[in-house]
Fold this sequence. Notes:
Distance between the termini: 45 Å
Number of helices: 1
Helix content: under 10%
Shape: elongated
Number of strands: 54
Radius of gyration: 28 Å
Amino acid sequence: MAFGRLKGEPIAISAGEEGTVRFWSLPGLQPVAEPLEGTAATAVDLGGGRTGVVTEGTYGGRLWDLTSRRVLMRFPKETAYAVGTFRGIEALFVSHGSTVRVVDPRTRALLETLPIPGADMMAVGQLDGRPVLVSGGGSYSQAELDLWDLTSRRRIDRDLFLDDWEEEDAHPDGLVIRQIAGKPLLWASHGETRVDRWDLSREQDPKTVLRVEGDARREGGSYRSIAVTDVDGRLTLAAGGSRRDEHRSSPNSIDLFDATTGERLGPLRGHDGEITALAAGRLDGRPVLLSGSGDNTVRLWDLSSRRQIGGPTPGGPVDGVQFAAVAQVGGEPVVVTGEERGVVRTWDASTGRLTGAPMMGRSPQADQVGLTSLVTADLGGVPVAVAGEQGGIRIWDLRTSTEVGRLPLRHAQSVDRLVLVQRDGQPLVTASSGNVLYTWDLRTRRLIDTFDPRAKESASALSLIDGRAVFAAWDPGQRPGKVRIWDVAGRRRLSSFTVVSPEEDVPPGMDFSIAGLGLFGCAPAVFASGQKIVRVLDARTGRDLAPPLRVEPRDEAFSSRLHDGTVTTVHGRSVVLVSFSPDEDSQLWDLTAREPLSPRIRGVKDHALATGAHVVVTNGPGERVHLWRLTP
């Protein structure tokens, strides 16, 4: 979380655990530049009115010029960063291994190499007119902050011990140095339960400014991110974290304190998730605070009035888009996405912007899954999203982003897959839970059928063939693999066959996985992946309807696979999303023409596929969504 400038205008820079660095106008908090890939961001001054940003991700670190969008420097993985004054300029401090390098971001020149090992978080300030650096890192046995004289390159003997601190407590917003009345004061958030303050100019015990205690501590209350700034002549500490007890704060608020006495000044309320990042600055002469949250929004606060300035930023994918669908809302095409933790969102298919409020499903526990499936339907002119989750199905009105119904399952069973069918003109939804099938009337929300095919197989797929709900069950570990397919509405078995490998050196049923059932031309088909091949099998006999398609050269380091729900039909052609390991790539393939429809999509962790009249929606890297426009 940081302030910067782009083309002379003030901006906010945010980064999320989902892997996207975003740029927002101030004070409007609207997107002003294309996102970058990364999970953290540090802003630096490049001179000439230009802002640079260091992004961090699986690739390591990169210093970008935001104006030219060029990478100026690259850094290794597991590197920590800080910004501070050194030799009269704003310098970038880069900690990796046993040293901290001081770099001039304007020229990329190395100014100094400091023998400071293992810094996971840093802050830079002044002590007696000389630059100093405070670093924290290491393990529980090294729960101490080190104070370094940057001129002599030597450690200053100060006892800055952190109680209850562990390595994972290191946070880029956890250390702050401010010069107050000529004295350098240090604030440190540690153990996620307290903030201590030291006067670095003299030996002293730390003063605990604030502490999470009692029930709030037992419930996971924390102050992970802090910021210190002057508010109308009063030094103010902002602390953000998660749950509090009722006597201290409302849940997920930002708490304001007098930074010298610890006196509580009040909360800033508005975020729906844990506060994950804070940055203090000034906008048009006013003291302001930027806050980022687990609700995947950024908010801007006027610290003088303690009120939010405008609304939050548009939200975005938080935990990865695992499911996607296409619908019509108000005559316009929208993309509907579902995330792992149960959030459903709608996006304008033309602009890629959010078109409604997030629709929140069940909030899962750590050992539970959230959203498990997603489809869209039209109920008498009302576009709805039908989302499966632990315990049943939720129905959302896509025009208003409000929940309009639930379809419960007994004993809090989890919905595995959903399909929509029409029977006698009525919209029905069929869901699989384990190997049992449930069918509801979507209008009346009435359960009209339960079908248990008594399948003992350990894997299954629920799909549509020519508008009928069909269910396939098989045992991937069985040799040879046996597949059984049922007509759900008719409650009868349609076929049973043994999977035969097309290659002599591959055992029958080896690495066999079904992604879905449908039509291949006019024939009912099973779309499956095997040992580095994609197969289209006759759903009645199990024979190959087309020669197996090898989508990856024979290489023991790679394998291809179709995931459940990643097969669709576009203009009468069968289209699949093929994933490749170990690089987590994906690629769209036309199985009818036996050719790729897209380039390789790099770094896709989750897999979703949806289609509209002329578009296909897939996952992209950095938790983004790709919209492919197809022509007949």
